[in-house]
Amino acid sequence: MSNFQSIEMHEIARQAMSRYGFQYEFPAQVIREVNAIKEELLLRDNVRDLSSLLWSSIDNADSKDLDQLEYCERGHNQEILVKVAVADVDLFVPKGSKADAYAANNGNSVYTGIETFTMLPERLSTNITSLLPGHERVAVVVEFAVLKDGNIRQGAIYRAKVVNKAKLVYEEVGNWLEGRGTPPEAFSEVPGLEDQLRLQDQAAQRLKDFRMEMGALELESLETRAVTSEGVLVALVLPQESRAQYLIENFMIAANRTVMDRLGKAGVPVIQRVVRIPKNWPGIVEVAAEFQERLPAEPDSKALSRFLLKRKAADPVHFPDLSLTVVKLMGPGEYEMLEPGKTPVGHFGLAVADYTHATAPNRRYVDVIIQRLVKAVLAGKNSPYTRRELVEHAAWCTDRDKASKKVERFMRKVEAAVLMNGRVGEEFDAIITGASEKGVYARLIDPPVEGRVTRGFERLAVGQRVRVRLMDLDPSQGHIDLVRVRN
Q: Does residue 442 sit in helix, strand or coil?
């Protein structure tokens, strides 16, 4: 193959979507239905007006499907009161509508790097259901208090009008919070925003510290993000986690727990997000033993958390590879229907017992379902879903969640192969990321792409540094073949 960049990556992405059972194009009837929505009529709902509060969002620089806003204020006894505003997607996508049917079928948005296949048409997800700066929107507001020790006290949930005062970017906020960058420009444009973000960060740090004490697992991802310019892939980067990511993550966990608590008290069946106690705990024990660390024979999230924190401090370069190994041994997350009064399965990785997904309704269909359950409770109405419907939706959304990860993983391989065009024969430093009967894999240090070691892989172990040569590529299949260079 001569010029891999000439391969139609958008077509490869669409083929991958079809292969895993996704629709990648909105039918004409869905577009007609969405285009007929009169936004101003629906925004006349009689709800609280919180548009004057200093709401802001933190997301990726190119994100337009903004699902949530955050706001904090100080309370009594050193408490920090937090409000999370979640886009009211159900307001424009009623149950049984054509857009709802399409979203239910796909289950979530799929992010392939070269193209985003949104769960909802762009007029919704990146416009009238997105909490864009300067636009009045209706949201479901979730309140909770962060106590001095980092525990939370769940608060009220209600609908309100909100206005995003500033769209902030993860990298800029993270660098500023960690003392590695200048303050975001929005701070000079929006009075009080800097103090607001410092208070949010203080609350988030409390939440994080408390969850870590409870056994939450701090893991890092090896998932690259495609950087494009005018539709052409120019680079792959490994996103660096920062205090900005942790801020949003911890606020969303607390908000989701608050929603779960409210629905539980209302006595309605709900869909929970679960990560079970690892079935392959012995495998995790073996991994720890390779580092001369001993984990208990029975699953213990606190012990695993301590081990991971110790390894991250000792070897931050290899920690993402260790994280990936642990994630695989833990098993995937799932959705399950939870009967009222029953004990939740819990989320082993987050060290919480009561958890759902309710804060990203533009991107995940489960969140739309949960939003409808919440709104029914607030309105004093019966659940809009039967138990059978919730069981079926939970199973299907679990399937779609796993399928979307397969599409995204495949496209990362395709993008990696495209990026390596013209570099066959070059040598690279690499780290062994997988060594089993299925094959031996290595991740190049720069650029951060992974390939299969087809020769010279004998006696290689995960975490080992090696020198490899790029031997062959097949971008259409996402194949990268490497051979070990023996010095």
A: strand
Which residues have CB under 8 Å from 312's CB, separation 6+?
Answer: 218, 220, 319
Question: What is the residue range of 293's domain?
Answer: 281-331
Query: Which of the listed residues 416, 442, 474 is the one where a domain comes to its end?
Result: 416
Q: How many C-beta neighbours within 10 Å does residue 155 have?
A: 17
State the total domains in the chain.
3
Q: Taking Cα atoms as reference points, which of 6, 131, 11, 2 lies closest to residue 63?
A: 131
Could you tell me the CA-to-CA distances from 376 to 195, 339, 341 in Å, in that order?
36, 17, 19
pLDDT of residue 187: 97
- Going from the C-alpha of 20 to that of each of 278, 397, 399, the distances in angstroms are 26, 13, 10
Contact between 16 and 105 under an 8 Å Cβ cutoff? The reply is no
Residue 3 predicted with pLDDT over 70: no
Of 374, 390, 416, the domain-final residue = 416
> What pLDDT, in 10s, does the model give residues 15-74?
999 999 999 999 999 999 999 998 887 777 789 999 999 999 999 988 999 999 999 999
Q: What is the C-alpha to C-alpha distance for residues 424 and 386, in angstroms, rounded to an integer? A: 57
Q: What angle do CA 183, 188, 191 make, to 5 degrees?
A: 115
Kindly state the average pLDDT of the residues 355-365.
97
| pLDDT tens digits, 242-301 | 899 999 999 999 999 999 999 999 999 999 999 988 888 999 999 899 899 999 999 999
Alpha carbon 194 to its chain's center: 26
Q: Is the domain of 112 the same as that of 246?
A: yes
